[in-house]
Write a structure and sequence with these properties.
mainly alpha; 305 residues
Length: 305
């Protein structure tokens, strides 16, 4: 059984790890704001470069090197992870860009939409059936996105790119028989050489903004590997200790923190169309969460019956 397979109803002790993972992901815009003078592509390249050795270190202590090597030898697995690597690179790049250009609100909306996108992708590609409440949640969210088309089209692409790139990424990782950490290590291995080339170009260009230009900037770029790997490790631990249904409730912590940061720390303007969309998305999430809670309650009562 890989690290991501969770026995139904197994949720003991996982909540602190889930809160820590999504808490870090929520506050991570504060970290990337410190690097706003660096080109987003270079930040992405450095993030990938410094993630890989940390992944290997953690895999060594968790005895997962064998799983990593086995997956590398499987062409079907490697092909799928190549696709997931490209998707997560796009997701990371757009997310970094959204922070650097003061569009954290749009990023927050994208991650609010993500679980609803997951539901739709599951219906289309995995043959999963939507309950009436899930269908209602998707329709409400769709109305919210339609409002953005009318009043905030300039940032809608950020929200939709983040939601769908991470949603399709999750769909691929769902069917790939490899754990979170070995999978991330393979994805960063695939992206390592292009990232090294990009980092070398910026180092050669010497524009005085990126790696090597300043000790603190270089240290922050190296720390990007920790920011990438640590919350993922916490998430993987939480996923082993609690059901995905329970984990689904916690995932809204990150975009909520990002939403609050955008308003009260970064002072981004909240357009009327954005406010209307957020209200509808929150209503959609409330319906979606109620449906999840109802299913969890039914599953707990079944063994007792």
């Amino acid at each position: 059984m890989t690290e991501d397979k969770v026995p139904a109803g197994s949720h003991q002790g996982g909540l602190p790890y889930a809160l820590a993972a999504y808490g870090i992901w929520g506050f991570v815009p504060l970290f990337f704001k410190l690097l706003s003078s660096v080109p987003p592509v270079e930040v992405l390249a450095q993030r990938i470069i410094w993630s890989l050795p940390l992944c290997f270190l953690i895999m060594f202590f968790r005895r997962q090197i064998g799983e990593y090597l086995t997956a590398l030898k499987d062409w079907r697995t490697l092909r799928l992870l190549l696709a997931s690597a490209l998707l997560i690179a796009v997701n990371w790049l757009v997310y970094i860009y959204s922070i650097f250009t003061d569009h954290v609100l749009a990023a927050s909306l994208g991650y609010y939409l993500n679980p609803l996108v997951n539901v739709m992708l599951g219906m289309v590609f995995l043959g999963e059936r939507l309950s009436r409440l899930q269908l209602a949640a998707v329709v409400i969210a769709g109305i919210g996105v339609a409002i953005l088309l009318a009043g905030a089209l300039d940032t809608l692409w950020i929200s939709l790119t983040l939601a769908f790139s991470f949603g399709i990424y999750g769909l691929i990782r769902k069917v790939v028989p490899v754990g979170s950490l070995p999978g991330l290590a393979i994805e960063t291995t695939v992206l390592f050489v292009p990232s090294l080339a990009i980092a070398a170009f910026y180092l050669w260009a010497g524009d005085g903004r990126g790696f090597g230009s300043d000790g603190s900037i270089s240290a922050l770029l190296m720390a990007g590997g920790i920011v990438t790997a640590v919350p993922l490790l916490l998430f993987a631990t939480a996923a082993r200790r609690m059901s995905y249904a329970a984990l689904g409730f916690v995932q809204f912590l990150a975009p909520t923190v990002q939403f609050l940061l955008s308003l009260f720390v970064f002072h981004e303007p909240l357009k009327p169309a954005q406010l209307a969309c957020f209200i509808l998305i929150w209503a959609s999430i409330a319906v979606f969460s109620f449906d999840m809670w109802r299913k969890m309650r039914a599953e707990r009562m079944m063994p007792a019956a």
